[in-house]
Write a structure and sequence with these properties.
With about 300 residues, this protein is an alpha/beta fold. The chain contains nine helices and eight strands. The model is unreliable at about 1-10 (pLDDT under 50).
Length: about 300
């Protein structure tokens, strides 16, 4: 057990961040080094020549043939006129926050328009989903679904109007995986389970009929009957996943107030990535500013 007084390293402090990335030039150099680096084979002349910075553009050129490469092409920074340092600051904010960052907060802290801040937030969330290394789940896996969003007055519970369904699978002491789904039908949920949970695993669910048949699919299926007030039966429960839902929905309510059905999957993936990095939060910022699609 960790000492309660032990400092949890959630990444670089603001002072450390500014020392490493004091301006746009340092940010661009970091992206270049992460994606290419000196010695990168020129796609035009095949030389491993030195690459030189082109000051008038976000680009470098081959010292042999003059071929240009643009480090931000194919990344979340492509086609953005917002400074790279502002992007890096926004990413830093996302990694040190436990409850997410609203567009209004980005607008205030970065001095950009709300439209720009909104777009930056969504691009960062999509990037988090790309960087998150989703692996098949195995062992003891909790499975549950939750309803997020609007509520028609007087209507509650499973199937409540104006809500969006988020389906989740969590490996105990491991990763969580979320999917926004159109419904909770068996034909919708079970293929997702079979695709992402290894055969032979023990899966824990509530009594929802859509989970019937998991034993035939090769799982050790254990259930608790929430409708009868049963939430724990020996080692069978979905309490860990319920806690994740509580944090996700509480953060949405407190930070974002409302999230549309169209974009909810991005917010779910943001919290999924943050949860999956809970044992090593200091790795989030370096990963997000270093892991990009291959050129």
């Amino acid at each position: 057990m960790k000492d309660s007084k032990e400092k949890v390293n959630a990444g670089p402090t603001l002072k450390e961040f500014l020392a490493q990335f004091p301006d746009d030039e340092s940010c661009l150099q970091h992206i270049f080094d992460s994606r290419f680096g000196q010695g990168y084979k020129c796609p035009k002349c095949s030389s491993k020549a030195k690459w030189y910075r082109i000051k008038a553009q976000r680009a470098f050129c081959c010292g042999v043939c003059g071929r240009h490469i643009h480090p931000t092409a194919g990344t979340l920074f492509e086609d953005s006129r917002t400074s790279l340092q502002s992007w890096f600051i926004a990413i830093h904010m996302f990694t040190v926050s436990r409850h997410g960052v609203s567009a209004k907060e980005l607008e205030r802290q970065l001095g950009v328009t709300y439209k720009t801040a909104w777009r930056m937030g969504h691009e960062i969330r999509k990037h988090m989903a790309e960087v998150d290394d989703e692996m098949p789940l195995y062992g003891q896996v909790e499975i549950d679904e939750t309803y997020v969003g609007g509520r028609t007055k007087g209507i509650r519970g499973r199937g409540a109007a104006n809500k969006t369904i988020v389906f989740g699978m969590m490996q105990r002491d491991g990763q969580v995986m979320t999917k926004v789904v159109p419904n909770c039908a068996k034909k919708t949920l079970q293929p997702i389970i079979e695709e992402n949970v290894l055969d032979g695993s023990t899966v824990h669910t509530d009594e929802h009929l859509s989970y019937k048949g998991l034993k035939k699919a090769g799982y050790n299926h254990q259930t608790v009957e929430h409708g009868a007030g049963e939430y724990v039966k020996g080692k069978t429960h979905v309490n860990n996943l319920e806690n994740f839902w509580k944090h996700l929905k509480g953060s949405i309510r407190s930070t974002h107030i409302h999230v549309s059905k169209k974009h909810l999957h991005k917010y779910a993936k943001e919290f999924e990535y943050r949860f999956n990095q809970r044992e090593n939060p200091s790795a989030m910022f370096p990963a997000l500013v270093s892991q990009f699609p291959k050129p």
